[in-house]
Here is the input.
Amino acid sequence: MDIMFRIGILCTLFAIAWLSPWKFTLGEELDGWQALQRGDYDLAEQVWLPRAERGEVEALLFLGHLETMREQYSEAAKWYQRAAAKGNGTAQTLLASQYLNGQGVAVDPVRAFAWYELAAKQGHANAARARDATERQMTAEEVELASQLAQHWMRDGAPAGPD
Here is the structure.
């Protein structure tokens, strides 16, 4: 057999072995999203919960969305908090909005500002705009406290549980 042919076969076998688990995972994601789009929240949760329990950020964020669609805002906040603590800017922004509006958590503009600040530092444009709008409604003391809280989280890590 020609050496190039052997190399081609080996590369093909390697690609099949390497891509198979990825394709399976991709299929799970598509099934979870499709279930959500169909309104089958239980199936969507079955697909994503094991991944969230392993700490996968995308799954944590997805379950936050799922609980929001179920109007279980305190549960959504828990999932968003875990994803936010892992540095997900979208989760940080959504959690900040919950703190700003008291949706599933107590109204807390200081925490809202701090979460917006973390997301904004990552370049999340909506978070920066929301942070600025929130700041205009806060006292100077609240802004200072929120800035210190954000700095603390950036230095020592944001809380993964209720903060």
About this structure: The chain has two domains: 1-71, 89-163. The longest helix spans residues 3-38.
